[in-house]
Design brief:
Strand content: 15-25%
Number of strands: 6
Low-confidence stretches: 30-40
Number of helices: 6
Largest sheet: 6 strands, mixed
């Protein structure tokens, strides 16, 4: 990857990470926690569910990234002290119980129901799209309590750089 393209992808990832954290802070109406507040009794953490990303590329070789992106985002968000992130096994178990084993068939209108069954207030869902050599990751953050979409974002990159895109996103969200 050329230096210019890497800078563009890194900047895009940084902006997405900042947007996700800013939206989360806005939703929870809390200031960043300090060490004393983290252990304060009665302090509740907001439950969030990260669903597998839907492979919309018509190329089954991208199916591995449906759970791969989910897992990376779960790992990154788990480091935020205000969040209680549902495990990948919990979310995917609910999907299995609902008979959804092909994530491309996970329709947007079903996502809030799955997230609600996990006990989450917030959820992140997304999809993987491709146009030529360009891969686009679309993501949406929703709020079940207020029944609205809080934020959406996308990231473009080359298919050969998917690992770098996901790793950069995970690092930046931390």
């Amino acid at each position: 990857i050329s230096g210019r393209k890497y800078k563009i992808v890194s900047l895009s990832l940084a902006l997405i990470a900042i947007a996700v954290i800013a939206v989360f802070r806005l939703i929870t109406h809390t200031a960043p926690l300090n060490a004393d507040e983290e252990t304060a009794p009665g302090r509740s953490r907001v439950q969030i569910a990260v669903l597998p990303f839907r492979n919309m590329t018509s190329d089954t070789t991208w199916n591995i990234w449906e759970e791969g992106i989910q897992s990376c985002l779960i790992n990154a968000l788990s480091n935020l002290s205000d969040l209680a992130v549902q495990s990948e096994q919990t979310i995917n178990g609910i999907l299995n119980n609902e008979g959804i084993t092909n994530y491309a068939s996970l329709q947007p209108e079903v996502v809030p129901t799955i997230a609600k069954k996990s006990g989450a207030r917030l959820y992140i869902a997304g999809n993987i799209n491709r146009a030529g050599e360009t891969i686009r990751l679309n993501a949406l953050m929703g709020d079940l309590e207020n029944k609205n979409e809080v934020s959406s974002f996308h990231l473009d990159g080359k298919s050969l750089n998917i690992l770098e895109m996901i790793d950069s996103l995970s690092i930046l969200i931390k």
